[in-house]
Design goal:
The protein has about 80 residues and is α+β, with helices and mostly antiparallel strands. It has a domain at about 5-55. About 30% of the residues lie in helices and about 10% in strands. It contains three helices and two strands; from the N terminus they run H-H-E-E-H. It has a two-stranded antiparallel sheet. A hairpin with an 8-residue loop joins strand 1 and strand 2 (about 45).
Amino acid sequence: MTLRKLIEGRTNRSEMIGIFLALLELIRQKKIIVHQGDDLTDMVIEAASEEHRKTYEFASLELAQIEEPKAEEEPEAGEAEEVD
């Protein structure tokens, strides 16, 4: 099935967004695979094989959270800085 056929004939924007979000969730759960041959070809949606599910069972799509380095705290107004 292609993405085009899945949303073909639908005029309600909310319904199309819902379908797209459902596809993303199915991809995250590794239940479907979506691929596209070239830039201008349709996106093909296929059920993921059991082998694919097992191979990528522990793969995560979460983005790594990068912690910003903590800046040195500046003294509040009226507090004296410690001098060694």
